[in-house]
Design brief:
mainly alpha, 5 helices, four-stranded mixed beta sheet, single chain, 77% helix, 2 domains, 244 residues
Length: 244
Amino acid sequence: MEENIKLLVELQETDSVIIRGKNIIDSLPSKLSSAEKSFKEVQSLYEKEKAKCDILEKKKKDKEREIEDANEKIKKLKARASEIKTNKEYQAHLKEIESIEKERYAIEDEILSVMEALETAAKELKAEEAKLRAEKEKVDAFRKEVEKEIAEAEKDLDRLKARRAAIAEKIDRDIYNDYLALLKKCAGLAVVEARNEICQGCNMNIPPQMFVEIKKNAEIIQCPQCERILYWPEALLGGKEKTE
């Protein structure tokens, strides 16, 4: 029975490392997701600035077309000057040209205003682009690091699982099945030390006579509180009981 206890302790140690490894692997994608979230926030700011620049650029082009239209109207009006017969018609003609020219000047002022806004927006866009590039480089580097960690952790897990299978094969089937049930029930910790008459799984006191029996490691003894399998490490190591 002592051999089964030794194997159970070894199996628990292996399972604990496997569980930690799985937890590390499971936690890495969420860490990557957090980094990618930060990147997406920076990307969103960049896209907002880009949209602002696009709107201003479109407005500038629209106003430039309006200038072209005004110039074309003025050109056509001036071309009609030779057709005017009376002074009254000529004065009306000049006023029409003057009105369009005023509209053109107003549009030109608008273009200048848009160009100033576009210049400011372009600087902001450039700054956001630099932030986005830096954030992307950081996320890409972190992704490679995470992928490397996952690959290494999975490699370690494969090795540990092979070791675990070899240990489990040597344990009595009924004892192994009980161990599996406890492992599931007790959140991955089925075998624990009994130290100073205290179960190291639930920290509850162990009856003195039971503690004496546990020290022998001659039979499977479970904690009366949490039902975990208890063992005395010094006996397994072949050493003597420590003096308290």
